Amino acid sequence: MTYSTEEQKLIAETIIEQLGGHLTAMIGANHMYHHAEGALSFKFKARASNGANHCKVTLVDDLYTVVFTSVRGTKVTVKGEFEGIYNDQLKALFERETGLYLTMPTIRFARQA
Predict the structure, then answer these.
(1) Where in the sequence is the domain holding 33, given as residue range(s)?
(2) Which of 9, 15, 19, 43 has its CA 20 to 30 A from that of 101?
């Protein structure tokens, strides 16, 4: 399916929000692109445990397909591909597969009496 430019932007913004909203700050994400088929792709500078440095999240029938790749010059290697991912599973999948956190942990201090 091909989406209009406005729909492409909305889908990309929604994916970014579902991934925690701070991709640039947390993993050095750059080169973010929205695609006609309803996808967001981005590169990231942080070193992932699976060796990936690129991610593409595509909306397919209300679910997502996520592909992790390593791009080195002209060589592209698929590091993982996942289909049928629900929106609330995106962040956990990214963190599990790459070993990179997308949000800062909450630090709670004990109260002193």
Answers:
(1) 5-98
(2) 9
- Residue with the two structure tokens 């399916």: 1
Cα gap 38→99, rounded to integer Å = 26
- pLDDT at residue 47 in the model: 93
Mean pLDDT, consecutive 10-residue stretches, the chain (113 aa), reads 91 95 92 94 95 96 96 96 96 96 82 70
Q: Pick from 79, 73, 76: which is nearest to 97 by CA? A: 79
104 within some domain: no
Dist. CA 53–CA 70, nearest whole Å: 5
Q: Which of 67, 85, 89, 65 is nearest to 76 (CA)?
A: 67
How far apart (Å, rounded) are the C-alpha atoms in residues 83 and 9?
22
113 inside domain: no
Write out the two tokens for 69.
């790749």
Q: How far, in Å, CA of 54 to CA of 9, rounded? A: 19
- Taking the whole predicted model, whether its pTM rises above 0.90 is answered as no
